[in-house]
Amino acid sequence: MRNRFDKQLDTLHTSLIHMGALCEDIIANAAKALLDGDELFCQKAVVIEDEINLLERDIEQMCVRLLLHEQPVARDLRRITAAQKMITDMERIGDQGLDIAELSKFMLGSPVKSDIHIADMARATIKMVTDSIDSFVHSDLEEAIAVIAYDDVVDDLFDKIKKELVDQILKDNRMAGDCLDLLMIAKYFERIGDHAQNIAEWVHYSLTGSRDADLSGISP
């Protein structure tokens, strides 16, 4: 009985890794669509987002079956509960990655994106998503805590970009439309960072039983 349950947990773990990899892919393609101005990356993001949605449903059904049929306790229960929460954040990362890719279509040839820190914010957000998934894959508590702390970096970049965009509009109000689109893109990156932080917090919970990480002495 336990061997069967362990195999089911392994399948769940593998499916979560696959979904996490798709989240990394969609953010990378969205960032390339924005920074390189290539619509091919937008098309790839659409395909990846569909895969993420399908996988979310499969994993949710898997978790429900495990909870109903196996009635897990202690750490096993935490793992399954955390998986249910994590796939919600992963699905939203997929949605917001696609939103960035779609908005990028309106930024083709815009000079504004090279004048603000949007590329830095994209890299910082990709790092958060990648590291949060890695912390899950390797059951790495220290990496999960580092991701939680690193959210401050993404938040600071968002504040910086808001100020830069205001300055751009004051300098040339003909750029107001591009600036508003970039503000929305920055907001989506900021939300993705929040979801990556949530994933890391659920990793922390699955390993410790608590979502409250001790960030003292951790520098982002």
Describe the structure.
There is one protein chain. The chain is an all-alpha fold. The protein has a single domain (2-208), classed as Methane Monooxygenase Hydroxylase, Chain G, domain 1, CATH 1.20.58. Helix content is 83%, strand content 0%. The chain is built from 6 helices and no strands. It has helices at 2-36, 39-70, 74-104, 118-137, 141-171, 176-208. Helix 1 (2-36) packs parallel to helix 3 (74-104), helix 1 (2-36) runs antiparallel to helix 4 (118-137) and helix 4 runs parallel beside helix 6. The radius of gyration is 19 Å and the shape is globular. The mean pLDDT is 91.
Summarize the structure in short.
The chain is an all-alpha fold and 220 residues long. Helix content is 83%, strand content 0%.
Layout of SSEs?
Elements lengths: L1 H35 L2 H32 L3 H31 L13 H20 L3 H31 L4 H33 L12
Helix pairs in contact: 1-2, 1-3, 1-4, 2-3, 3-6, 4-5, 4-6, 5-6
Shape: globular
Radius of gyration: 19 Å
- Output the CATH topology: Methane Monooxygenase Hydroxylase, Chain G, domain 1
Individual helix count: 6
Number of separate structural domains: 1
Low-confidence stretches: none
Any idea what the CATH superfamily is called?
A: Phosphate transport system protein phou homolog 2, domain 2
Per DSSP, what share of the residues sits in E-state strands of 2 or more residues?
under 5%
Would you count the extended β strands for me? 0
Overall mean pLDDT: 91
Query: What's the SSE pattern?
Result: HHHHHH
The secondary-structure class comes to mainly alpha
CATH architecture: Up-down Bundle
Distance between the termini: 44 Å
Percent helix among the residues?
A: over 70%
